[in-house]
Amino acid sequence: MSALSIKGLTKNFGPAEVICGVDLDVAENEVHAVIGPNGAGKSTFFNLLSGAFPPSSGEIYLKGERIDGLSPEKIQQRGLSRSFQVSNVFGNLSVFENIRCACFKQSGAGYVFWRPAGKVRAANQRADEVLEMIGLQALRDVPAGALPYASQRALEIGMTIAGGADVVLLDEPTAGMSNTETTQAINLIRQVAQGRTLMIVEHDMGVVFELADRISVLVYGKIIATGTPEEIRNDPRVKEAYLGEEAA
Amino acid sequence: AETVKLALIDPLTGPMAGAGQPAFEHLKFEAKRINANGGINGKDLEIVGLDNKVNPQESLVQLQKAIDDGVQFVTQGNGSSVASALIGAVEKHNQRNPGKEVLYLNYAAVDPSFTNERCSYWHFRFDANADMKMNALTTYIANNEDIKKVYLINQDYSFGHAVSKAAREMLKEKRPDIEIVGNDFHPLAKVKDFTPYVSKIQSSGADAVISGNWGQDITLLVKAAAEFGLDAPFYTYYGASSGVVTQLGDKGVDRIYQINEYYGDFEDPEMAKRQVEMYKETGWDFYYLRLSTMLDMFKKAADKAGSTDSVEIAKAMEGMTLETTNGEVMMRAEDHQIQLPMFMSVMQDDMEYGAEGTDYNFHKVARIEREDVTLPTTCRMRRPK
Amino acid sequence: MSQDLSAAMQRSKSRPSLRGLVPWVVFAAVLLLLPFVFQGNSTAFTLLNVIGINIVFALSYNMLLGQGGMLSFGHAVFFGLGSYAAMHAMIAIDDASYAGEGFWAHVPVVGMPVIGMIAGGLVALVLGWPFCRRAGTAFAMITLGLGEMVAAAGQMFPSLFGGEAGIYGNRMVGPQWFGLELAQSADVYWFMAFWTFVAVFAMWAFTRTPLGRMSNAVRDNPDRLQFIGYQPRNIRFMIFIASGSFGGLAGGMAAVNYEIITPEALGLIPSGLALLMAAVGGLGVFYGPIVGAIVVTLMNSMLSDYTDASILYVGLVFLSIVMFAPRGLGGGIEQVRVAWRDGDLGRRLPGWLSGTLAVGLIIVGMVVLVEMMFQATHGDDEFAQVLGMEFDAAALWGWLTAAVLVALGVVIKRATNKLREDQA
Amino acid sequence: MLEVNDLHAYYGKSHILNGVNFAMQEGEVVALLGRNGVGRSTTVKSIMGEVPPQGSIRFRGEEIAGMPNHRIARRGLGYVPEDRDIFPTLTVRQNLELGIKNTRKPGKWKVEQFLDMFPNLARRADSPAGVLSGGEKQMLTISRTLMGDPELIMIDEPTEGLAPLIVKQIGELISEIAKAGVSILLVEQKLSIAMDISHRVLVMGHGQIVFEGTPEELREDEATRKEWLEV
Amino acid sequence: MLEIVIFSTLNGILYGLLLFMLSSGLTLIFSMMGVLNFAHASFYMLGAYFAYTLGMHTGFWPALILAPLLVGALGALVERFGLRRVHANGHVAELLFTFGLAYVIDELVQMMWGTVAVAYREPAYMREPLFTLFGTDYSIFRGVVILISILMFVALWYLLKKTRVGLMIRAALTHGEMVGHLGHNVPRLFMGVFGFGCALAGLAGVIGGPIMSTEPGMAATLGPIVFVVVVVGGMGSLQGAFYASLLIGLIQTFFVAVNASVADVFNAMGANLDPYGELGRISLATLAPMTPFILLVLILIFRPRGLMGELEP
Ligand SMILES: Nc1ncnc2c1ncn2[C@@H]1O[C@H](COP(=O)(O)OP(=O)(O)OP(=O)(O)O)[C@@H](O)[C@H]1O
Ligand SMILES: Nc1ncnc2c1ncn2[C@@H]1O[C@H](COP(=O)(O)OP(=O)(O)OP(=O)(O)O)[C@@H](O)[C@H]1O
Ligand SMILES: [Mg+2]
Ligand SMILES: [Mg+2]
């Protein structure tokens, strides 16, 4: 069964149709990249999948269950989680707290007010694991708002996976990073991809080609091609619409 | 020298200060006169002002402060909520601290229950209660054959409802032919624009309006009436309270009446002089005539008891009579409610003594005798042994 | 990497868990010692009791504003209704113990705060859901409307609210616990101390629970919350209920303390008081509102003995805190504490001291100014005399002194800012 | 035209700029390179006064350090910040119009010109700019700053988050701006673009300028590249 | 009947327009600076008192111009030396600042002008009736009020929607620094807007003072209603505030005119409720002054963006 299956998805903002009938299947444990020119609708596409907006029409199935029209928290609870293009963390909370907050729900302590958070074993353990995974143990007690940019991006990813989702959407996870940082981020994403289905939006072709099992190219709301990195690199339409002449 | 302290617990700061400050000044002014005439059983009377912001809880804190300061007599007037809190607190304090009894002299909280079902031995009221005022007011109206239709407009809270109920019952008894053509309630101190109410009064064809409103609620009501050319007179409880005259100006002339023990043109030259003096000295009018009565009776009781102890004074004050400029008043022993004659007065221009520095003041139009003011009480006073 | 960051990292190593108990032991000790300090001074006890109530009230308010980011103008609704519930219960106890039977005959008055808490929580539960959709201005305004409506209803239904005179009861009824007679304010103190301690501890503990943590998250970034599986509205709603419960608890304490409750307690003024106390004390520090409650209560009840401009001073103090110490008095204390812990105090103290001096000078200048204006318009004011000021308002030099004081303050303030910049 | 002398800047306690010195001539395109976090953005921010600068910054001979930012802008310095800062509640067109400093004196650039250049913007000309995609926002900010007719424009990371095709387009736009006689200070990460269009490059390290020269010189200077640019 | 309808309409419109005058400055400040100015009603009060004092020397018309200018200047000073400092700490801090400011202004007014009302009245000739209908007068002054408030609406609408200043301020609301980078003087802009908003409040005070009386409590009692208008209209929407004012004005006056009480309704359905009982006696008329708050709560629950607002608050 495919992890995500999208049928005839469209989204209008007033008269403007931003996503026009997208069909896509993402297989389990696949890393699937979505690329496309600016304004093609990639972020909007993610917003639809994660429930931030309801789609205008079309259907979305997560592991066979229909999720379109559900609210973001319902979708998250069913196992789909996302990160944001612009870092979007709880600025006054510490790094650890940011992640732990993302863990409570899964640990069955979502709205608990009769037990100290420190006693919710599962959440603390999970948060420590995630912290280690994203390599921020040293910055554990730093308020998230004061983190350096790259660390904030890592935290963003950490929060996305902390809730235990197995389908993860990452929106431009390496935007604004230096080469080293990008390399680290790629490693992190690889780790994250273990045992999960991943969709990423990215403009850095290096990252895309390195990580993705398959790539879809979204242009003005339509998917014009889906295929392996090799196929995409050689697709003339993709070259014309996105990569330009001297493709990466 | 040792003094007798009387603590005034009333709003002295904030938006309600306009109600508490004149009483404070009046008390201090009269205290001087009393001290010059020998004081309270030989001791000087000292007025202590304590600010309660018209908040019952805060009043209790201030009461405790006063008690710790050695005060045995407190007075208060603004707000039945505060009065209710004080009655309860004084009652409990006296019960729990025998030997340190405190008396509460109420000069303006008019809720009838305080001298009926809630009456307390430690509470003495020097103002006519709301029902007595209505009794006087309706007696006046009953004598006026021209009034056939009456409109009631009051504030939508316990006091306003009490006024309305008393008016309906008493009019029915005294003048069954009078028709109540309207009985409106509006929230307390929330209405900015009374014109819709005035329109309603206008179209009801009322000959007279009765209102227990106070503060801005009476000013704005009468002002709106004047602007709309409504000619019906307003019979009120608080038409002369501070600020009303200033704001109404000629809009109030011949339109607003007040039932009270006070009016602006004393015939007694001594009182007329004192009133002018007080304005000069404090900037406030002599509106709270009853404060003078209260202090005089306080002095008389102390002299009679030969002591300034609160228990003694309470005992002496029960049933005490006092000759005032308006005639004899009496502190009824049954319920500690003062019995006194009242006066209907109307606002006029070009008065000899103008209120609030204007030329306007309230001119006496009728005297209602004590017998026509008094009402029976349901009080079953629990007296200390 | 910045020093702040590395300092934070240093700190994060590990913390001995016993250290966390110290403040509570101190708090309990202070509560136990106070009665000996103030023995025989019932005004002090009366004030302490009011402070206890206000501490709980302000802290419960801060659960909403400081921790959940929800600015409310209707918090007194919970306080007031909790108080009413407790008072009705007290009356029931009175009636029942007169008859000597029935459920209420066995309920002690010291338990009234529980009744208040249940009532406050229930009211929040019933009313809260539609309100918690949004935080921010919408929430502020809807609570303003709620406050006005409940306050109006309080005047409209005398059988429940007792009309203007309110309802009143007697705390010396029903079974006694721990021999606590509750006759004098000094007796009531023990009741207050107990409940204040319990409530403060419970509210502190709440901040440590998952829900308490989520309430900070919903304050910082409600949108993101959805994507980690929460509906922000649910969290807000639960905070609202928790805060309402503790507000009600404070109301229950008040019912026992004052033995009367009137509809005014539901209105905008007490709600504003909660905001005032929390903001003066500081929204960002847990104990901030405690400091605020103490300071504001004292100013409210004592300042008016000395000056008729007391409300003006409260306003000015509030303004200067908002302007010069945005994190409140508690925030200031916390800053000093952190600097001390980091061994930074010596270096930063001069800046703080001169800053405080500057604000102090400005305030004194303002006070002189206000008192002179007061004298000019009202005649003598006691406060001026207390401060040893016998100004003739018409004389120029008085006004000059005020101006000089303020100017001096401003200059020092400028210099301080410069100093701090250079230090940084 | 722009002279920066011994510029220091701080964030709280951390000392970010440690005596930056450089100068720019009229009509020059200069790229400011360096690793992440060395303080390139901070340099331009302190020139604009967003971060309080210490040291001397002269523009056309006049000291501008410490001036409020609007007065600096009025003297002919344009700035495109790295986080774009479009006005989300205004429409695209209104965003552009706000770039104009003086409505009475029409400048070199016209709204229509940019709408022609970027069809994406033209399509959304009358919708609120908040809904634009990341790339569209970038186009809008550069255009908006140009509407104010700056003589020197400082662009922070103009190609961040852009699709390869658009990156090329932005490159062209920058060349065009340069052709129009505007000096450009480019803060960039992507070496290739910077090398293509700039006349001169500056490399930053440890809060100072550690290399200054032409693109060719940098290309040849492997040591500098290794030490300060690559990792 | 016709009489009541006509008068209720006239009264409702007049009261509505007064509300609008009061709230327009607040809407302006809120929509442009995002500051919910709690001291707005206090500036309104200052307008009335200034006009009273000035009017004694200059007469009504000069005071009508001078008093708002004075209030505006004061507002600008408050922005310059108070609000601006606080701005960096966010909207809650700004709100707290204005909250405290309201306290201070109200107290200062009491100190300067005393605790009781002052005799601020419109000039005598304006008390003459403009027209008389069904024996009721409609004074010239009321006509003037209507005229001024409509002028105010048009001028404001133009300023907000049609001028660059409006654009700039809306932009500065989200990214103040950036507007500065584009060469616009943002601090001066904010100072101007705040001052202007306060001047509008002052103008409302000059007009409202004689109608609603000039006393130290006038700010405290009007404060909440003004917020209701702004919220019901839709945060920051001038048209919204206009419609909301009229709506509230009309609802209130018409409700007062209707006598139907809960008891009437129940008894019509066959129940037997005491018309003087607590529940039974509640009537539309007694509820009228509460309607703004009921409306506020309903609007926020069912249509949070208000009548005309673009964004949810
Ligand atoms: N709420 C909205 N209302 C109207 N139009 C919108 C809205 N959100 C997005 N759009 C438009 O939809 C298009 C797609 O935007 P989206 O953010 O999905 O692009 P993207 O592919 O993520 O681009 P980028 O790579 O630049 O981030 C854009 O043209 C944008 O202006
Ligand atoms: N607001 C801030 N507060 C504290 N430190 C900051 C702040 N902004 C930036 N810094 C720190 O200052 C240093 C320089 O930042 P700057 O933004 O100038 O770097 P940059 O060279 O532009 O790199 P980037 O590629 O990230 O844009 C970094 O270490 C960063 O962490
Ligand atoms: Mg995007
Ligand atoms: Mg940068």
From TrEMBL, chain A:
The keyword Thylakoid does not apply. The keyword Chaperone does not apply. PANTHER family: CONSERVED COMPONENT OF ABC TRANSPORTER FOR NATURAL AMINO ACIDS, CONSERVED COMPONENT OF ABC TRANSPORTER FOR NATURAL AMINO ACIDS-RELATED. Keywords: ATP-binding, Nucleotide-binding, Transport. This is ABC transporter-like protein. Pfam families: ABC_tran, BCA_ABC_TP_C. Signal peptide: none annotated. It comes from Alloalcanivorax profundimaris. The lineage of its organism: Bacteria, Pseudomonadati, Pseudomonadota, Gammaproteobacteria, Oceanospirillales. Residues 4-245 form the ABC transporter domain.
From TrEMBL, chain C:
Keywords: Cell membrane, Membrane, Transmembrane, Transmembrane helix. The keyword Transmembrane applies. It is a multi-pass membrane protein. InterPro entries: ABC_BtuC-like (IPR037294), ABC_transp_permease (IPR001851), LivM-like (IPR043428). The chain crosses the membrane at residues 21-38, 44-64, 71-91, 103-127, 188-206, 237-261, 273-299, 311-329, 349-370, 391-412. It is found in: Cell inner membrane. This is High-affinity branched-chain amino acid transport system permease protein LivM (LIV-I protein M).
UniProtKB/TrEMBL annotation, chain D:
InterPro entries: AAA+_ATPase, ABC_transporter-like_ATP-bd, ABC_transporter-like_CS, BCAA_Transport_ATP-bd_LivF, P-loop_NTPase. It comes from the Bacteria. Keywords: Amino-acid transport, ATP-binding, Nucleotide-binding, Transport. Residues 2-231 form the ABC transporter domain. Belongs to the ABC transporter superfamily. CDD domains: ABC_TM1139_LivF_branched (cd03224). This is ABC transporter domain-containing protein. PROSITE patterns: ABC_TRANSPORTER_1, ABC_TRANSPORTER_2.
From TrEMBL, chain E:
Its main location: membrane. InterPro entries: ABC_transp_permease, BCAA_transport_permease. It is found in: Cell inner membrane. The keyword Transmembrane applies. The keyword Transmembrane applies. Keywords: Amino-acid transport, Cell membrane, Membrane, Transmembrane, Transmembrane helix, Transport. The chain crosses the membrane at residues 12-39, 59-83, 95-120, 140-160, 189-211, 217-235, 242-262, 282-302. It holds the Pfam family BPD_transp_2. It is a multi-pass membrane protein. Belongs to the binding-protein-dependent transport system permease family. LivHM subfamily. PANTHER family: ABC TRANSPORTER ATP-BINDING PROTEIN, BRANCHED-CHAIN AMINO ACID TRANSPORT SYSTEM PERMEASE PROTEIN LIVH. This is High-affinity branched-chain amino acid transport system permease protein LivH (LIV-I protein H).
